[in-house]
Amino acid sequence: MIARSLIICLVLLTGLTSLSAQDDALVLYDNTRYMIGPRGLTEEVEITIQINNKDGLGLAEVSIPYTSHDNISNIKARIENESGLLLRSLKKKDIVDASSISGISLYEDNRVKRFSLSNPTFPFILRYSYKRESKEYLQICDWSPVIAYNISVKEAKLVFEYPNDFDYKVSKIQVAEGTVVYKEGSNQATWRASYDANQWKSESLSIPNGQNIPRVEIIPEKFNYGLPGSFESWSSYGLWLESLSEGLHDLPGWQKQKVKELIADKENEEEKIKALYYFMQDNTRYINVSKDIGGMKPYPASYVAVNKYGDCKALTNYMQALLKEAGIDSYCIDVQAGTKPATLFDPDVPRQAFNHMILAVPMEKDTIWLENTANTNPYGYLGTFTQNRKALWIDGANSKLVDIPGLGAEAVSTDHQITINVKSQEAISATVLSTFRGKTFERISYLSEQNEEVQLSKTVNRNLPYSRAGYELYTMLDRNRDDKEVSFMVSMDLKNYTRSFGDTKALFLPKVQLPSLERPTQRKTPLLLPSPIRQHDEITVSSENEIALIFEVEAQVLETPFGKYELSSENTEEGVKISRKLELKAGQYSLEEYEAFYKFLQQIKKEERKAYLKLKTT
Q1: How many other CB atoms sit within 10 Å of the CB of residue 505?
Q2: How distant, in Å, are the alpha carbons of 226, 234, 241, 421, 441 from that of 430?
């Protein structure tokens, strides 16, 4: 299904090299025009798509999203054969107007106009157009002719017409400068684009596709969206955002009394913050409620207090109101959330570039960051969803961009304590205590809270050492709600990890978990590690019945700019102790650096293949 929206943009300004008629479909032409006039913003769209086979029929289903701020009109569509002969035209009765409420939403004012035009004979051409008028807007456009990464675009044009006295900014990635024609009374800026889907490929640990493909955003310096505002600076935008929340800290009287009860016996400010955060977590849940001013304005604290739900803005505003009642200052933080944010953040162009809101509580020596939408989140833990990125600290005219701290290696470390007992060459068992942090911890916490037992079991098994070993069950160890880790105890049979060499058997150590990467000759995009990767294994092996344990691997230390790998061992009275550590540093690595990164991982794999114990009967 095609979804054309004012706030989606991916533009590639490189010529097509190999557009194939065998592709499922092809965008032949995209002509999009934005115009600023006395009545607001007008968008006119004309799209021509060639559909080559039944796998491309999804593009014959057209969806035009809009909100209560928009008026959609002049919807026209037709399908033709290759020669341009008209096969069918769109009729008014074919257009369906429906709510586009999402599965996680209670209410949204988003709607959609849908229609479908198809033909049993291929190829055929679909042409459609429409007009959108918006009295209020935050952006002129965030535009793209790319409707899917596997669908090429032969030709596309973006035109922006605006009065001479209209000030705006452009943010772009991998896009050449547009051309501007100055006229009496108005100006016209034009960008042209094309896209070759054959050049796109999904790769391991790649930067998000939205960052890899060029884009154009046009942002007005001044706007009126519910209230007048300005993108002149981040502080002016923050001032507008704060004005949306004015008067919304309206806790009911009984909630104010509850705040007093919760903090009455707390000895310091942090204990008060924690008590109120627990109360918020235990008495609310996340549901998207997008209605007022395009979902930009939070619902009042009283709404959340009574209904016990809200979106990120409403829950954050509610938590801020609880803290305010306790006499504690806090600040809303706008952030682009996601393990890998979908688009690059341009700090030099103030604009609406965020999709999530959290809360910051400044303390004497540090800042406490509060994620308010996750009931399982430990106090003060943001996690991989919002760590290590720019964000907007909202404080009226003092609003500013800040850096949210990144997770360190210890905070994401996976630790395994593996105790192996060799009773004979045929009877080898292990007890494993595995502790997970970071993304794996977050995933396990979510699945556990949702009682998703099957997916939980798969996730745990996938991350255990000796994942192919037979085990009947695992035990999740008890933890406190603020623990930023989760541990499992597992008993295993390791018979599948041995190999015979005459009268000697080899017991292989579990492999350290490394990302699977393409060969450098095949890689097309930079590599991105949003947070570090760390694994620390302590392996103790003991034997019975005169089984000698021989570990002949020399100590290894491999250190590069990308990370470090260490392997060491010692013989003890009980047997052999082996220690192994891996750390890969967070960062984005260019294609020029990729080969060295790949070689580092290959060297680790080479050392891992040597890491086995000889079990010899004496």
Answers
A1: 21
A2: 63, 56, 56, 6, 23
Q: Which residue has the higher pLDDT, 495 or 408?
A: 408
291 has a pLDDT exceeding 70: no
Q: In whole angstroms, give the CA distance from residue 379 to residue 109.
A: 33
DSSP readout, 163-190? ETT--EEEEEES-PPPEEEE-SSEEEEE
Asked if 476 and 494 touch (Cβ cutoff 8 Å), the reply is no
Maximum CA pair distance of the chain? 98
Listed residue (383, 377, 332) closest to 356, CA to CA: 332
Is residue 329 packed enough to be buried (19+ CB in 10 Å), middle (13-18) or exposed (0-12)? exposed
Pair of tokens at residue 548: 């000698």
Cβ atoms of 49 and 148 within 8 Å: the answer is no
Sheet holding 96-99, edge to edge: 2-3, 61-66, 111-116, 96-99
b vs e for 383-401, b when ≥16 Cβ sit within 10 Å of the residue's Cβ? Answer: bbbbbbbbbbbbbeeebee
Q: What is the DSSP string of 68-106?
A: TTEEEEEEEEEEE-TT--EEEE--GGG-EEEE---TTEE
What the block records as the tokens of 393 is: 């600290």
How many beta carbons lie within 10 A of that of residue 84, not counting itself? 7
Give the integer Cα–Cα distance in Å for 301 and 295.
16
Whether residue 239 contacts residue 231, with contact meaning beta carbons closer than 8 Å, is answered with no
Q: Is the distance from CB of 8 to CB of 144 less than 8 angstroms?
A: yes
* Neighbouring residues of 108: CB distance < 8 A, sequence distance ≥ 6: 99, 100, 101, 102, 288, 289, 290, 291, 295
- State yes or no: cis peptide before 123, omega within 30 of 0: yes
Check residue 24 and give left, alpha or beta (phi > 0: left; psi -120 to 50: alpha): alpha
Q: How far apart are the first and last CA of the chain?
A: 69
What is the pTM for the complete model shown?
A: 0.89
Q: Which of 237, 264, 218, 207 is nearest to 11 (CA)?
A: 218
Confidence of residue 5 (pLDDT cuts 50, 70, 90): very low
pLDDT digits (tens, 9 = 90+) for 531-570: 999 999 999 999 987 788 888 888 999 999 999 999 999 9
**Tokens (6 digits) for 391:** 């964000």
How far from 529 is each of 206, 384, 435, 454, CA to CA, in Å? 8, 11, 21, 28
Measured CA angle at 594 (ends 465, 408), to 5 deg? 55
Quote the CA–CA distance of 352 and 140 in Å, as a whole number.
Answer: 11
**In 340-365, which positions are buried (b, 16+ CB within 10 angstroms) versus exposed (e)?**
ebebbbeeeebbbbbebbbbbbeeee
At 93, list the tokens: 């009765």
Interval 600-606 mean pLDDT = 96
* Phi-psi sector, 14: left (phi>0), alpha (psi -120 to 50), beta: beta
Nearest to 50 by CA among 189, 147, 159: 147
Which residues, other chains included, contact 323 with Cβ-Cβ below 8 Å and sequence gap of 6+? 273, 276, 329, 330, 359, 361
3-state secondary structure of 204: coil
The 10s digit of each residue's pLDDT in 122-152 is 999 999 999 999 999 999 999 988 888 889 9
Which pLDDT tens digit goes with each residue over 146-204?
888 889 999 999 999 999 999 999 988 777 788 889 888 899 999 988 888 887 778 99
